[in-house]
Design goal:
Pfam families: DUF7081, DUF7615, PHD_Oberon. Keywords: Coiled coil, Metal-binding, Nucleus, Zinc, Zinc-finger. It is found in: Nucleus. Its main location: nucleus. GO terms for molecular function: zinc ion binding. The chain is built from 15 helices and 13 strands. It folds into 4 domains: 118 residues, no CATH class; 99 residues, no CATH class; 91 residues, no CATH class; 90 residues. The radius of gyration is 40 Å and the shape is elongated. By secondary structure, the chain is mostly helical. Strand 11 and strand 12 form a beta hairpin. The strands form 5 sheets. It has a 3-stranded antiparallel β-sheet with strand order 2-3-4, with no helix packed on it. The protein has a 3-stranded mixed β-sheet with strand order 6-9-8, with no helix packed on it. A 3-stranded antiparallel β-sheet has the order 11-12-13. Helix 6 runs antiparallel to helix 7, helix 6 packs parallel to helix 8 and helix 8 packs across helix 12.
């Protein structure tokens, strides 16, 4: 009779566990999200999750609280709060304090990934299934696959192909991805609806810009949504796109020419002409208006192919054309473009922008004008204060001169003869000249009534101490 070890009984019990979704900031004790009876029987660990959820539907922030009797409990490894915040810190602690412990077996005894309530509870194999002669301490490679949007065709549910290099991870996002029902892998960042993988996913764009070491943005968007929102294609103004895509999440730009280049290859695998025309029309919308030579050549090729289909060519005949010919101007295409064909091509209209874009642009212009007028008002108020101070100072100067003149005239009237009378008369005459000069100066200063911009620069520099560059 075969003997069943306690390890095997524990493993069989854990295999039947269902990982229920938990709420943000929820906490608990023991299995399935914290170890039990480790390192001694009766030892129980506590767990807690934070508010952020990644694209896989699991919590980004999860904390593990060990029993307080463990040695070296208050060390730099645990950091603040006496909790393990990462799997790496916990592994370092175990290797340091319990060098003889089986680390792989320890992590296989509970689930480090904690699904949120946005996902569906799924069974998980906490232990790998081994044969009797295999080592049960091998590292756990099982993984929970949960789509927050409930999309059963989400790319996160498809096992990735084996690759030799380390796969890139998606950027942790606490903005759009924190919304319930939004999945980074399959939810459009612009309309929040699921993307389609039909025809090799031609209808969506994925931002693969590297935002950190081994981390990419990973957000996706429908091509049509990006075109409507002026975030794809050829867009002028401050954004300045030319057959490119602008990611709203990380501000990265993606060249769409290689994306459209795949359309001809994808179309060769499509059986229905209506779907082919739909794909080619989208390629025309992306490339229309481009100034790049390679994009223009690709646009011409796609337009030629679409014209042939509208002229009655079968899909087989279109794709039987030699590949070099596809990328050059086909002579018989020009002959085939009769009025009916051109009218059919005109029916392939670009995706019109939705109204809110015009309103947003008008609002942006309104803000710019308001800022300009505000700056102008502030500048005019500053000029007014300068002019007010200088003009009043000049007025006070003239008033003082008039007072001195009145005083000197009074003294002159009392002494009409002698040397003192001649001296006082000279003072009165000088005062009159001085008053005349200051009055003329005031008249020149009053030129600012037309505005500083129309006032001669000499007056601004001499009387208002404003240096004006040519």
């Amino acid at each position: 009779m075969k003997t069943i070890t306690p390890y095997q009984r524990n493993r069989d019990a854990l295999l039947r566990l269902v990982l229920r979704g938990v709420r943000p900031m929820e906490s608990g004790v023991g299995l399935p999200y914290a170890p039990e009876n480790w390192p001694k029987p009766g030892d129980t660990w506590r767990w807690r999750v934070g508010p952020r959820v990644n694209g896989k539907g699991t919590f980004v922030d999860r904390y593990l609280y060990p029993p307080k009797h463990l040695p070296e409990f208050s060390t730099e490894i645990l950091r603040k709060g006496n909790a393990f915040r990462s799997r790496l810190s916990l592994e370092r602690y175990i290797r340091r304090v319990f060098p003889k412990a089986d680390v792989a077996k320890f992590f296989a005894s509970f689930s480090w990934s904690i699904p949120s309530t946005g996902g569906v509870a799924q069974k998980q194999c906490l232990y790998p299934v081994y044969s009797s002669d295999e080592d049960p301490s091998r590292e756990l490679k099982s993984h929970i696959a949960v789509c927050k949007a409930g999309n059963d065709k989400c790319s996160s549910l498809i096992p990735p192909p084996p690759i030799e290099t380390e796969p890139l991870t998606t950027m942790p996002c606490d903005i759009c991805c924190s919304e319930p029902g939004f999945c980074t892998e399959c939810s459009c960042i612009l309309c929040c609806k699921s993307i389609s993988l039909e025809h090799k996913g031609y209808s969506y764009i994925k931002c693969e810009d590297v935002v950190g070491e081994g981390i990419i943005c990973g957000h996706v968007a429908h091509v049509t949504c990006a075109l409507r929102a002026y975030m794809a294609g050829t867009v002028g103004g401050s954004i300045g796109l030319d057959a490119e895509y602008y990611c709203r999440r990380c501000d990265a730009r993606k060249d769409l020419v290689p994306h459209v280049h795949r359309f001809l290859e994808i179309c060769q695998t499509v059986k229905f002409q209506g779907d082919v025309e739909k794909i080619l029309t989208l390629g025309i919308c992306i490339l229309r208006g481009t100034q790049r030579n390679n994009a223009k050549a690709l646009l011409s090729c796609i337009e030629s192919t679409l014209v042939k289909l509208k002229c009655g060519w079968s899909l087989e005949d279109v794709w039987n054309v030699d590949t070099p010919t596809l990328w050059s101007d086909v002579s018989d295409v020009g002959e085939a473009r009769d009025n009916d064909t051109l009218q059919g091509l005109q029916d392939v209209t670009p995706i019109e922008p939705i109204p809110f874009n015009h309103e947003a642009e008008a609002h942006k212009l309104e803000e710019e004008i308001r800022d300009v007028l505000k700056a102008l008002r502030e500048a005019q108020e500053s000029e007014y204060r300068i002019a007010e101070a200088r003009l009043h100072a000049q007025k006070e100067c003239l008033v003082d001169l008039y007072r001195q003149l009145e005083k000197e005239k009074t003294e002159l009237s009392r002494r009409v003869s002698g040397r003192d009378g001649d001296s006082l008369l000279n003072d009165v005459l000088k005062r009159l000249d001085q008053i005349k000069k200051e009055a003329t100066k005031l008249k020149e200063m009053e030129e600012v009534a037309r505005g500083f911009g129309l006032t001669p620069t000499g007056i601004l520099e001499e009387y208002f101490h404003l240096r004006v560059d040519e």
